[in-house]
Amino acid sequence: MSEERIISPNEPARVPAMKRASWGAIFAGVVVILMIQMILWLLGLAIGLAAASPQDGNWQGLGIGAIVWLVISTIIALFIGGWATGRLAGVPRRIDGALHGIVAWGTSTILALYLVSSAVGAVFGGAMSVLQTAARKAPMQQIVRQAPMTQEQIQQEARSLIQSRPAQGANEQQRQQAQQRLDAAIDRMLPEDTQAQVPQQQRQEVVAILTESTEMNEDEASQKVDQWVNSYRRAEQLQTGARQVAQQAQEAAPEALDISAQAAFWSFLALLIGAAAAALGGLLGAPKDVVTTRGNW
Q: What is the 3-state secondary structure (H, E, C) of 259-286?
């Protein structure tokens, strides 16, 4: 049977050429890539912080320099890691060394993305835990009081008050009439402009209807009306803010799409350059003191 063998010109040892991928060499190359990249990042950070001057205020230049150094250090780390992978694989074919370097590049990239996503997830999870703890400790009454309410929700709550806490001796027809009067009074009281003052006459009208139609006293009714007004203003402010954000997002959409396209292109280019650097390192790292022959073994 004719098969390919790898032999050393200096040693008579014969190794079958069937085994193409050396995962031990790939793993070692990934370790080399990550460690060299970390060393170069720390070196660049130390140089950048030492050269930075808060008085100059040239933070934009420092950021550009950090990005350039990040790209250069990544290419260097990938080249050296690819070279180590190709060398340790022990396969004399240059194309096999390049392929080992590419596999090491892909493995290190996936590992780096996993580590970054895990760190971001941990930070996000910690922030959500803090928010949940704060929400559990907050008084429920205060949360309800601060909740924004639309005009329809306020009118619905007012009708519920008349039904659940009616004035003594009021029949169903009187409650329905009071609900209609209260709906109209609330409609007149709430201003369209959240910055405008609530007319005192319309506010007092709502308080009077609540006092007449429910078992609430004047102070309690006045507090309830103030709560409605504040909640309505918050709801209107939220809606206005949402409309402004939507308008700004629509205006910024073309620019955002252009930035996203540029980011995608530069990311593609960076990955392509990294793969080329790792492949070149693996190609140059393939051992040259081993030759390949074919024969019947």
A: HHHHHHHHHHHHHHHHHHHHHHHHHHHC
